[in-house]
Structures are given as C-alpha cells and as structure tokens.
Amino acid sequence: MINETMYGLGDEPSVIRELFAYGLARKAEIGAENVYDYSIGNPSVPAPALVKETLLEMLETDPVALHAYSPSAGLPDVREAIAASIRERYGVPATAGHVYMTAGAAAAIAISIAAVSHRDDEVVVVSPYFPEYRTWIEAAGCTVVEVPACQPSFQPDVEALAAVIGPKTSAVIINSPNNPVGAVYTRESLEALAAMLREKEVELDRPLYLISDEPYREITYGAEVPYVPSIYGRTIVCYSYSKALSLPGERIGYVYVSDLADDGDAVSVAIAGAGRALGYVCAPVMLQRVAARCVNEPSDVAAYAENRRILTEGLSALGYEYVEPDGAFYLWVKALEDDANAFSERAKQFELLIVPSDSFGVGGWVRLSYCIARDTIERSMPAFAALKASYEG
Amino acid sequence: MINETMYGLGDEPSVIRELFAYGLARKAEIGAENVYDYSIGNPSVPAPALVKETLLEMLETDPVALHAYSPSAGLPDVREAIAASIRERYGVPATAGHVYMTAGAAAAIAISIAAVSHRDDEVVVVSPYFPEYRTWIEAAGCTVVEVPACQPSFQPDVEALAAVIGPKTSAVIINSPNNPVGAVYTRESLEALAAMLREKEVELDRPLYLISDEPYREITYGAEVPYVPSIYGRTIVCYSYSKALSLPGERIGYVYVSDLADDGDAVSVAIAGAGRALGYVCAPVMLQRVAARCVNEPSDVAAYAENRRILTEGLSALGYEYVEPDGAFYLWVKALEDDANAFSERAKQFELLIVPSDSFGVGGWVRLSYCIARDTIERSMPAFAALKASYEG
C-alpha cells in the first residue's frame, strides 16, 4: 500500500538524473577521462573565493549561534541583504518580508506552486521546459498544460498561451535564461506576456501568477535579462545560488514575491505556509549567510562563454544543428534521428552522455550541459564526429 | 486565489515558532539576559569539535567537487557510513540502499508520510505529540488520529491504538525519546505495539508502517532506547543530526527503511520519489559529509543531564508538578490553571517563554526546552516563583 505515484517517481528518476548516475558508474568503470558527460548542470567553475572566505570566518564564531535554527523564512539580515540587492540592481521596491529563503530553486518552485494553486488547477509551462516542473505541479494535485515556444526564437508564444489560460489556470511558469534551450526572453516578449495576463485576469476575474524560475539570471552572453517583477506585478521569483555561486549541492536559494503585487503580502504568507507543509524548517543557515555575503559576487561567465564557443564551433564544423544560446549553459541540438531517446542511447556507445528531449516536452532534440571541463568538450569532438558518421555509414 | 490552507499555515506559525519569534523580539527590546526562553529545541551544547575540523578539511579540497550535486538519495559513501553505523550499533542488517539523506527529520517525516500514504488515509499519533506531525499528515491529504499515551507513564497505549487502526490507517508515528514529555518507550511497550500491528496487518490485509521519529535517540539519562527496526519489520526511521550534533539550522538527517521489512526495497523507492515530489534535490552535501564523519560522535548528554537536574530540583522546590524525563531535553510541566494558553501568556509577564500544550494535542500542560544556557535556568527560578505566587495571591 505504498503510494504508487511516489513509487513511480522513485523508480523512474528524471532522465537527467538517470544519465548522471549512469555516467558516475561508467566513469568508475572505464575512467572519468573516457566519458563525455554532458548530462547535468553541475557547474565546472569553482565557487568564488568569497564563499570559502565567508565559511572560514563563520567557523571561527560561536558554534551554538552559528548552527542554530533560523526563523522559517530565513535570517532577518540575510533577507534584507537580498532585498537590498534586488532594489539596487533592478530598481524595484523589494522588502525583506517578501524574501523567503529556500533549499534551492527546486524547493522554491515546489513551494510557490503549492502556495498559489488548488487541487485540479492548471499550471502552464512553455515547452521545452525543465522536466521536474511536471513533478512539482502534479505533486500539488494540478495538471500541466504545455504550450510550445515560438520557433525558431524559443520566445514564449503569447497567443498560444492566451488560448489555454482559463478559469482553472493558477500560474504560468517561465524560465529565462532558459533551460534547456538557452533562450533569453526579450523585454518585448515579457511585456506582451504581462499584457495578456492582465487582460486574462480581468476576463477571468481571478489572479494569475507568473512563477519566474531564474537560476541562470547571471549567466548570459550579452543579452539583456529584464527583471520580470518590474514588468508583471504578480510575479514570484524563484532563485538559486546553485549556478551563480557554483553551489548546487548545498541547496540555497530564495522565493521573492514581488512587492508590486497587490496581494504580495498574502502570497508571502502562503509561501511560508507551503514551505512548512512541505517539511522545510529553514534553509541551511551557514549557506544563508554565504548567500547574503556573496549577493553581489559576479558569476564567472567568461568560462562558460569560452565553453560555448568551443562546443558550438566544433559541432557546427561537424554539421550538427543547434539553437544558438543567449544564456544559461545548455546547448539544444537537433537529434540525428526522429527518436531522441534512440539517439541518446546511440551516443552512449561513443561515451557521449546527452539528454533526450522527450522529458522536456518535445521530441527530436538533445540537451548538452556545457558547464563541464573545457578539456572534456575538446576531447569529445572525435566522439561527436563518430556519432554523426554512424548515421551516414 | 492563493491556497487558503497554505495561507493559514503561514499566518499561524506553529506556537513554538511564534513564541521563539516573540522571544527574539523581546530579547532585542529588554536584553537577552532578561528573557528566560524555554521555547525551542535549539541545542545549547556546541557541535563536537570534529564538525568544525571536518568542515575545515573539506574547504581545502576542490570546490567544484565539494559543492556539486550529490545523487538524490545522498553520496554513496555517506549512505554506507550510516548503514555501517546502524549495523554495528544495533545489530540489524542495514544496507546503504535503504538510507536516504534528508534535510533534517522534518523532511524525513514529511517524505515518509507521503511515501506510504494515499489521500484520505489516516495516520495515527500518540498524544501529546510534536505539533508539526499534523501539518505534514494533512499536507499529504490524510487525517490525524490522536491516541492519548498511558498515564502517568506516557508509554503508548497499545489497546487504545488497536481500537483506532482500521482499513484507512497507513502509518503510526512514534517518537522516543519523546518530545514533549521526555518519555523513552520501553522494549516491552514496543514489543506489544509491534505484536498488535502485526495482528492488525493480518486482520486488515494491508501493511502498516511504523514511522519512528528519533532525533533524540542519543539524548537519554540512563534508559535503554531499543532500536525499533529490530522489533517491528515495517519500520521507517526518521533521524536528524540537529540535536545529536547540535546542527539544527543546517538541516541534515536521514530516512532509514528497515531491511527487515519484506517491502523495504519498494518503500525505499517510494521514499526517493516522495523526496523528489516535495522538491528535495539532495540533502546539503557538505553536511552529508559531516554526518558521515561524525556518525559515531557521542552527544554531550552530561550538559543536558545537569540542566535537567537544576531545573527539576528548582521547580520541585517551588511545588510545580512535572513528568520526570528519561530522555530528550524537554520538561512537561502541569500548568497552574486549566487553560495552558492563558498560563503561557501569564508566564510572559515574568519573561518566561514556555509552550502551551494544546498544539501537542492535550490541554493543561506546558513544555519547557531545557537545552538552554545553564545560567538562564538558574536565573529563571525567581520568575517561576513569582509566576506561582501570582496564582496564590
């Protein structure tokens, strides 16, 4: 009588996690240098020196105070440091009371969905999309409604979104810079999306929340990343330091409920309640302090930009098709056969670990995480050549 | 259209958390030394030196590997270290595959309930009980069934439990050493409970899970703490290092699904699925390594034993009635009026922060956390005297 939904989620881990686990085993078997693991978004850039410095300083303070529970929403000075950074960077009137510290963006998104949805509501996503959105939406008892992005820009298709938003819609999730395609939503796109949502709110006489998943906000290659709360009031930002500070395993991030939402205070209360319901007592406290101290540390985007150049030039020379990424550290590559799963399986024969697109909501593509060692990218090119040749034999 | 249940949980934080927050504000107002804060279980004993030593060593290693994602269930060597410790200490055949690392016991319990329950199931608790059990049980769509403990032993009332277990029961939660009363369940009690559950499983033709919440396992004053998985097969241990290693804010613990359960492998899979559904990507990785390294570190029980002696002797001399605690670091004291909330409110006038019993499922008592500075306990005695005198005026 175990819960079969939970059993199913445990028995079929996300395709990304499954490939990541396969990679760990395969590396143990044939040597890490012989596996080209493009599976997971584990940053290859080390955390900024200030992270270590902050942790070392902290460890010299009173351990009782250091490791004590924080209030559920986070340490007050940490929340204020983050609010201040949002005010300074984006010119919006952010207050500490609207910042809720979380164990990463995953927790932030799961909590946000639970806070603004009811069972049997619909949550809209733009495909291709991060596969775990489905897990968290369904865990809240809601239904996923997929709306394909525009082609070939991968901007949100506002008209198509408008067509699916109805009385059961509670929220739309967007993710820019985007995982998996690397698109950065333009101001124009976001303004059109915001205008449509405002119209729909009037038409449906209900609030519509925009959950903005932003772990890659700092990782862009020149494109402007407009701040969503300054464009649409009822925005809930889900942020993570996993990528910006290269701390994915530490689980630290936050929810920021826009102060420009007329119900922002109430939403903040519901966020706190949802965190409590999901078993989050407080975000890890040492990491809360690291986040506050490093709140304005720049990300080492140059390293990813160079990886991007090497990978795209290499694949381009081999004749692969892909979407030119404006942000994040993923390359969305056209599979060499219609069945992306079969393509990903075949790639394994060449020790290439690339994620098939099906769980992102579309067929025929693969995702390559290029936040990996540069050397791995360079050495993988013969494998990509051999993979391609295998389709031409 | 925010979720009113989540709003309610956020708007009325747990009574413990509310009192804790009041205490923080009051200390800022009149000075920390003037507030006698018995509200929360924030250990006053510093973390063992090995915690800092392990963190310092870790910080000298490659930051990319150090802070990377771990597999969802935890680092393999960490899971193995914990399984080995369980085997050695308790003589049960624990395997790493049944250990799932979590962000503390709260996450462990929320995940366990979700893994073995369905909506509209009933989960049984022994009152008085930790109030958040209700939050997590209801978050899984289930109903709380409260069964009072025996009086005055505060052992589980097996007959009364048998009377409420029916076709909708998925699990029973026990907590020994117990928060809030400090009772330690005897082998005899646990064997009677196990025998009853096994009978009910046959009668009802369904598995019944025993969720054993054990954050205080190491904190006892001489009483034997039998290892529940060695007594009942279908046991799910929810453990936390918050108290044993004085790391409550860091959020590290685990679920251990007994290897003696015939469906233990399947339950472990469902645990992993439930963790995923609730947004837990992996437990904080630095802390996973700390847990493994400190897995056999002794807890500084002597400090709590001395606090217990001073507090119980002091209150006894003043004529307060309380339950003699065998474990954990809570004292369950009879309120001086029927309404525990009114009593707790009146105690505030004397700067005494003590938690009323109602949210633990019973009226007329208060809980005192004595994991606080010894000095605070000593200095609080005149306040307890004045509180008592105020009822005698």
Automatic annotation (TrEMBL), chains A, B:
Which family is it part of?
A: Belongs to the class-I pyridoxal-phosphate-dependent aminotransferase family.
This protein is called what? Aminotransferase
| Domain Aminotransferase class I/classII large intervals | 34-379
Q: Which InterPro entries match?
A: Aminotransferase_I/II_large (IPR004839), NHTrfase_class1_PyrdxlP-BS (IPR004838), PyrdxlP-dep_Trfase (IPR015424), PyrdxlP-dep_Trfase_major (IPR015421), PyrdxlP-dep_Trfase_small (IPR015422)
Enzyme Commission no: 2.6.1.-
A single MF term (Gene Ontology): transaminase activity
Keywords noted in UniProt = Aminotransferase, Transferase
Task: Specify the domain of life of the species encoding this protein.
Answer: Bacteria
The coenzyme or cofactor needed here is: pyridoxal 5'-phosphate
Species this chain originates from: Adlercreutzia shanghongiae
